[in-house]
Design a protein that fits this description.
428 residues; alpha/beta; Immunoglobulin-like; six-stranded mixed sheet; four-stranded antiparallel sheet; 11 helices; 27% strand
């Protein structure tokens, strides 16, 4: 019943109440109540029902964790109407909107911002439509359970591709793929440019054509790039709205996409106190799908990372020299020493790159000006944790381990840039 119908019904009841003074008003009021009730029922039935309405919810097959994912709701009706529309969305969807007052037919746009990988379930679309006289309304629920798969940040891959096509990767913080004549693999012979180095001149082609020609080289392709992701206890710590593990998987996804796009072969190893999954290095776009399928159920473990066990297993199945990108976190000197020993051992055959995620909230707490004794305590603790962490990372660098320690917002570009730099310098 609408407010208009409720007001009419209240007026009829008031007439009945007035019957205390004039009994005839009781009969009149009772008649009016029946008339209003009947009018409300008939008006609500005159509103469009489920058979008159068609609703479709459109979104990507794979949603990205930690970013806004666009959703479009299209509602079609056989006849125009005013309606209150509500989407049945779980709290973990973090939708920008879930209720609207609008005219039908309509197209509604909103975003969901999931912070956990896995699957979230959107329910039905509920519509409350008043009748022609606006005395009553009909509520209709359309559709069924709509599972939405949430993966690592696949949206960043789409953005990378769009910017790469336009030659605007600098907007993402990624430097150019290569410079002229960098690399070790021959690509083509072209006319020499004024800024070509003398060693790039192809003298045989120059003699044959009578024009100064140069050889253009590109970084070697089909090299293994293997991501090792630690999902032990420390990786479950939050760094912003996502855990360090989710930030690591987002950066790993973009890195593997760039590696596959560059012609390299990408692989994966997941570990905590034991190895939980592995993907031997392969090329092709299908490898990215295998990566997403493998990491989708991954959650932080409650145990400590066993680096010795993880890299002993790695040495058994990966014999060829590879770039090994290790996403992990460090807390104390003892753990750092264990990790350093394994990286030094790994460096005998492979090229390890250690990647850790800084917690922006910790950095902000260490820099925030204190206004109370609690603020002083929080700042002191944060500064101490950061100092211990920096000492641990410095120990790794002194042992010759290549380390990236980055804020989540800069993590993916820094990892991709380091990979491209390694390719340009032919360090593999």
């Amino acid at each position: 019943m609408t407010w208009r119908g409720a007001a009419l019904l209240a007026a009829a009841i008031a007439i009945i109440a007035a019957g205390a003074a004039a009994p005839v008003l009781v009969v009149v009021g009772a008649g009016l109540v029946l008339v209003v009730a009947l009018a409300v029922v008939m008006d609500s039935h005159a509103a469009p029902g489920a058979s008159d309405i068609h609703a479709v919810r459109e979104h990507d097959d794979l949603l990205s964790v930690g970013v806004d994912n666009a959703v479009t709701l299209r509602i079609a009706t056989l006849r125009p109407a005013e309606a209150t529309v509500r989407e049945e969305l779980p709290l973990q969807a973090h939708a920008t909107a879930d209720a609207w007052r609008t005219a039908l037919p309509c197209t509604l746009h909103y975003s969901v911002h999931p912070t956990v990988r896995g699957e979230i379930h959107a329910g039905r679309t509920v519509l409350r439509i008043p009748g022609p006289l606006r005395l009553g309304w009909r509520q209709t629920a359309i559709g069924a359970d709509d599972p939405m798969r949430v993966d690592a940040d696949i949206a960043a891959v789409r953005v990378y591709e769009a910017l790469a096509r336009r030659g605007q990767l600098a907007e993402l913080g990624v430097r150019s793929m290569r410079l002229p004549s960098e690399g070790t693999e021959f690509e083509r012979v072209r006319e020499a440019a004024p800024d070509d180095s003398l060693r790039s001149i192809n003298w045989k082609a120059t003699a044959r054509t009578g024009r100064l020609m140069a050889s253009e080289l590109i970084p070697e392709r089909a090299q293994p790039v293997i991501v090792c992701v630690d999902h032990a206890r420390l990786m479950g710590i939050g760094a912003g709205e996502l855990t360090k593990l989710d930030h690591a998987l987002n950066a790993a996804l973009l890195l593997l996409h760039v590696a596959l796009r560059s012609g390299d072969r990408a692989g994966l190893q997941l570990f905590a106190d034991s190895v939980t999954a592995r993907l031997p290095p392969r090329g092709g776009a299908a490898q990215l799908r295998r990566f997403l399928d493998t990491v989708r159920p991954l959650r932080p473990a409650e145990t400590e990372a066993d680096y010795a066990r993880a890299f002993a297993d790695f040495g058994h199945w990966q014999r060829r020299r590879a770039l090994v990108v290790i996403f992990t976190d460090v807390l104390d000197a003892e753990q750092c020493d264990r990790l350093a020993r394994q990286c030094v051992h790994l460096r005998r055959q492979h090229l390890p790159l250690l990647v850790t995620v800084r917690d922006p909230a910790l950095d902000e707490a260490a820099l925030r000006e204190p206004r109370s004794s609690d603020d002083v305590y929080a700042r002191t603790v944060a500064a101490g944790v950061i100092a211990d962490r920096d000492d641990s990372l410095q120990l790794l660098r002194r042992r010759g381990v290549d380390v990236i320690d980055a804020d989540p917002r800069a993590l993916s570009p820094r990892v991709v840039n380091r990979y491209l730099e390694i390719k340009r310098r032919a360090r593999l």
